Amino acid sequence: MESAAVNNYCNNKSSNENDVVSWFEGVSENAGWVQIQTLRRILELNHGTEYLKKWFKDIEIEEVEGCALEALYTSLVPLSTHADIEPLIQRVADGDTAPVLTQQPVTTLSLSSGTTEGRQKYVPFTRHSAQTTLQIFRLAAAYISRVYPTKEGGRILEFIYSSKQYKTKGGLTVGTATTHYYNSQEFKIKQEKTKSFTCSPKEVISSGDYKQSTYCHLLLGLLLSDQVEFITSTFAYSIVQAFTAFEELWKELCIDIREGTLSTTRIKLPKLRKSVLDIISPDPNLASKIEVNCKELEDLDWFGLIPKIWPNAKYVYSIMTGSMQPYLKKLRHYAKDLPLVSADYGSTESWIGANLDPCLPPERVTFAVIPTFSYFEFIPLYRRKQNCNKVSDDFIEEEPIPLSQVKVGQEYEIVLTTFTGLYRYRLGDVVEVAGFHNGTPKLNFICRRKLLLTVNIDKNTEKDLQIVVEKGSELLTSKAKAELVDFTSHADVGNQPGHYVIYWEIKGEAEERVLKDCCREMDASFVDHGYVVSRRTNSIGPLELCIVERGTFKKILDYFIGNGAALSQFKTPRCTTNQVILKILNVCTTKRFHSTAYDQIKEQINTI
Ligand code: AMP
After folding, report:
1. Which residues form the GH3 C-terminal domain (predicted)?
2. What is the reported pLDDT for 189?
3. Which of 176, 342, 348, 512 could be a cystine partner for 365, CB 3.0 to 4.6 Å?
């Protein structure tokens, strides 16, 4: 669509908002029925593909009625994982034009972030993927503007980053899903429809060098500071990353603002330089104002940075749940009283749900499933009984159920059937049903299922680890002038007995005594029965806390970016077995502590 057509397509802002809200009210009212229609559309569109033919043989789905279609589909087609379909996607990537997974030829592949499982995965991307992104963004924007209205024509300071795109052997374009979206017409349409425009031109978003992009995002965000209505990124990590950089860069940024220049030491890419130099001009008054503010902020350790520098910003918007929760504290520090609005829930494979309660603090946010985006199934999960010694898995599973049958309070793993050729695909996310919006469930994100610390009979999820680290870091901030910057963990089973290692990067000074207490506190805070029993009997050794030098987690980020990850999708792996990352962590460790949490119990056992 050309930009004239984009303009025609865009109506009045509030009628747009009403349209998208009433559309969602309608589809969520009859979510169970809409899901069956969605499944039917997916199966009709992809009827006769190699994958479906294998399971459906010659059955004509047109003749199968509503609920019977769901039952037939789930009885014939097995659950799948990425490993099952990887060879098929690889054939498509290599140029096989036969209808393998979809009838429509796939021309684009997305890369999942890979930061949670250590390896990036190819996922088909189609026009439908970009359209659902636009639809969920519009829906979220409509709900947000009801409580935090923004000025039409205002600016968004967006810390967004495309990754490099490349071609596969078969000529398909590969990049992250966010990259494809930023390059799509839908990204343009979203700005027009919501009447809010990003500060940075596309050359800044797609420079491919996140440090240079961050500098330019900040510079343009400062130059337009009076017009900025809200600040956003895909994941909260990127906002924290950008403002941490700002603490170092503000003096240089002020020189560029005063003189209308662009630092030659910071910004080297010619295309990027040209695109920014074309739109900036000297503004000495603004530079002086920012300098005064920054000097004040420096004394406050940058508390309230966002409202001070961007006085018209109404809120900060980003994914703040799941593995982003640890960055909330820092985000609140920068945002002071400005509302933090937690963004929607999705994956490279499919968007899943929208946050319809923007006022809720990120800790309490739920996501209403959008029943037109994919066909969703839910595998009921039950935590293993405390005295169960079986190590094979973390949860007991039951048969998957459709969206219409989920129950409040129950945990599930999500299964997707998408328009892009994934059939009964296990996403690997654990969610809990927190309630309903009309007939569609509202989900609470719990954790990635496979991200797990385990040595023997113990099992601790990402969420368990997060809780424990929070307790340790509370102690750190209350007893020392220091804060936790980032963390990860590793189950060391190479030495006997195996034990957990938690790596901390901290800012500020902390005495050894305090760090020892933090280590002990974390060890004692794991409540998993398997862990507690194993610690008591010393079949798991004392928890080890490693303090790494400043900048270590930046090295980890650079390692992932160097391997093709995009900053927009980056999530620090909270538990790792990746040898390169472990090497970085161990080389950068400056102090090690071993927990004494269970020492007394061991002494008691020995005396008995
Ligand atoms: P990606 O590999 O970039 O496709 O990441 C997708 C994964 O990020 C999902 O499967 C979730 O585990 C996580 N994720 C996405 N959105 C959210 C959210 N709103 N809250 C928590 N985790 C999320």
Report:
1. 464-579
2. 85
3. 342
Residues 476 and 435 in one domain: no
Of 56, 111, 73, nearest in space to 89 by CA: 111
Are both 574 and 481 inside the same structural domain? yes
* Residue position matching structure tokens 């390896």: 119
Neighbours of 471 (CB within 10 A): 16
In terms of domains, do 19 and 67 share one?
Answer: yes
**Distance (Å) of CA 27 to CA 24, 371, 487:** 5, 7, 41
Query: Domain range holding 382?
Result: 12-105+369-450
Q: What is the pLDDT of residue 12?
A: 58
Please check whether residues 547 and 423 belong to one and the same domain.
Answer: no
Cis upstream peptide for 149 (omega within 30°): no
Protein residue whose Cα sits closest to atom 17 of ligand 1 = 345
Give residue 2's pLDDT: 34
Domain presence at residue 589: yes
| Atom 16 (ligand 1) nearest CA | 345
Ligand 1 within 6 A of 49 CB?
no
Tokens of 346: 């999705």
What's residue 429's pLDDT? 93
Domain membership flag for residue 92: yes
Q: Is the CB of 347 inside a 6 Å radius of any atom of ligand 1?
A: yes
Closest C-alpha residue for ligand 1 atom 20: 321
Residue 120, CA atoms < 13 Å, CB-side half-sphere: 21
Instruction: Find the 347 Cα to ligand 1 centroid distance in Å.
Output: 5
In a domain, 425, yes or no: yes
464 lines ligand 1 (CB under 6 A): no
Counting the structural domains of the chain, the total is 3
Omega of the bond leading into 307 within 30 degrees of 0 (cis): no
Q: What is the DSSP string of 455-468?
A: SSS--EEHHHHHHH
Assess whether the C-beta atom of 80 lies below 6 angstroms from ligand 1: no
- Asked if 385 and 466 sit in the same domain, the reply is no
Which one of 347, 366, 425 would you pick to mutate in the ligand 1 pocket, going by the greatest count of ligand atoms within 8 A of its CB?
347
427 lines ligand 1 (CB under 6 A): yes
Let me know: does 553 contact 485? Beta carbons within 8 Å.
yes
Instruction: Flag whether 188 is in a domain.
Output: no
- Mean pLDDT per 10-residue segment, the chain (608 residues): 37 73 96 96 94 88 84 95 93 94 92 65 88 92 94 94 88 89 84 86 93 97 97 95 96 98 97 97 98 98 98 97 92 97 95 97 97 98 64 78 97 97 95 98 91 84 92 95 95 91 96 97 93 91 97 94 83 91 97 93 59
CA of 493 to the centre of ligand 1 (A): 29
In a shared domain, residues 564 and 482: yes
Q: Are residues 497 and 383 in the same domain?
A: no
How much distance in Å is there from the Cα of 128 to the middle of ligand 1?
19
- Rounded-to-integer distance, Cα 412 and Cα 18, Å: 32
Domain termination residue (choose one: 450, 472, 503): 450
Choose one of 423, 450, 477: the last residue of a domain: 450
Let me know whether 445 and 469 are in one domain.
no
Q: For position 139, what pLDDT does the model report?
A: 94
Whether ligand 1 lies within 6 angstroms of the CB of 426 is answered as no
Cβ pair 430, 382 in contact under 8 A? no
Q: How far is the CA of 567 from the centre of ligand 1 (A)?
A: 14
SS3 59: coil
What pLDDT sits at residue 4?
40
Ligand 1 and 346: CB distance under 6 A: yes
